[in-house]
Amino acid sequence: MKKMLSENKNLLMFNISRTSSITAFIPFEIYAMYFFSVSPSGRYIFGIIMIVSVIIGMVSSPLYGNIIDLIPRKLIIKKILLSWIFVSIPLSLIWKFFKFPPIIYIVPFMLFIGVTDELLWRSLIALQQNIASYKNYGKSNGIAEISGQLPTIIGPAISIPVLLYLGAYFSLLVGSLMCIIPLYFISRINENFIPESFKPRDKKGTFNMAKKYPYEIIFIFLLNFPYIMISVGNFLKPVFIVTVIHGNASSIAISEMVYAVFASFTGMILTFTLKKHEILLAYSFFSMYIIGSLLMPFSGIFMIYLICQGIHGIGNPGTRISRNTFVMKHVENKYSGRFNSALSLFTNASRLLLLIIFTTFINILGSKELLFLSAIMLIIIISLSILITRKPEVKNFINGKSIIKL
């Protein structure tokens, strides 16, 4: 009973930290998305920023995996949050008093957040696995989905008055103040994690994980594609809203909020229902995401677009919760950082390739055509993921006959 209460307390503080840290700079990000989406040159710059962030993430991925398995996850998260505070406050003040073009402030801060957020996100996943018991992995992932989507409701709601009445520079100050909340709650979590002693370059590194379990990692990578397309959609959807539907920054904010409401609802349902059959559920939600992707390019009316965005808000989180729960059950905790980093190598390579293609053709083909192309790609990907389940290694992985470890 005492152990259960301690776990629930840890999970409560974890999810408060998760929500507040993700919310912090959403108003700034919404302003940046609108700022770049309104002009052809801005769209190219927007795409290049995302490409550069992914490249840095790819280069850093093996190092991140080793860091997460070598250093207490709480400490990593706290240092990232402190770095956000120490960078955003002076930048906000400089932006306020020195009237340079906004792009001077937006580009470096977007790159900074993009790179550090990758390490934060993976550290949060690893920390969650530390504090949740095996039998509660499904429940904890459902709750984590809600806490991960609440920022997309809270952030856009905050962004509308902040951006309209206070200005973009003030959004950085708001973000820095919000970082204090997760700093406090993360510090109070009982992590109970003893890192394994290994040298970053020894045989137990991220690349060795990829060599030892290639088919298992590729299988999970293919199931990761709704997330990859959401990442790419963060580039395409604002452009679609501005150029096809003729919306504004508030429209982008509402779009994000609708996605988050449906995602939170999905997380809430799976919190109580996800006990087993994670792979079957992942495929079901993946299929739903494809349906939304096929319909979205033809939604010239904002309300119809929001319906498609709502379908995405069910499909991607449902796939992610089911997939993450499966991975937590089949990958030993002390190796999760390296497994997820090996997975990120494939994920980030795909994001990079797609962002390069879509950035190149955004002003040639248009966002509508590229959204439809992404839907066709998803149909191919889900077919490939079904084919790879015929591999004996993947069959054993799915059936629980093999556990990932080094």
Give an account of the 3D structure:
With 406 residues, this protein is mainly alpha-helical. Helices cover 82% and strands 0% of the residues. The protein is built from 17 helices and no strands. The protein has helices at residues 2-23, 26-37, 40-70, 73-97, 103-131, 137-166, 168-178, 180-187, 206-212, 214-223, 225-243, 249-273, 278-295, 302-330, 336-361, 367-388, 392-398. It is globular and about 55 Å long. The two termini are 34 Å apart.
Features:
406 residues; 0% strand; mainly alpha
Compose a concise summary of this entry.
With 406 residues, this protein is mostly helical. It has helices at 2-23, 26-37, 40-70, 73-97, 103-131, 137-166, 168-178, 180-187, 206-212, 214-223, 225-243, 249-273, 278-295, 302-330, 336-361, 367-388, 392-398.
| Helicity level | over 70%
- Low-confidence spans: none
Global mean pLDDT: 84
- Overall strand count: 0
Q: Per the principal axes of the C-alpha atoms, what is the gross shape?
A: globular
Query: What series of H and E elements makes up the topology?
Result: HHHHHHHHHHHHHHHHH
Structural class: mainly alpha
SSE arrangement:
Blueprint: H1 2-23, H2 26-37, H3 40-70, H4 73-97, H5 103-131, H6 137-166, H7 168-178, H8 180-187, H9 206-212, H10 214-223, H11 225-243, H12 249-273, H13 278-295, H14 302-330, H15 336-361, H16 367-388, H17 392-398
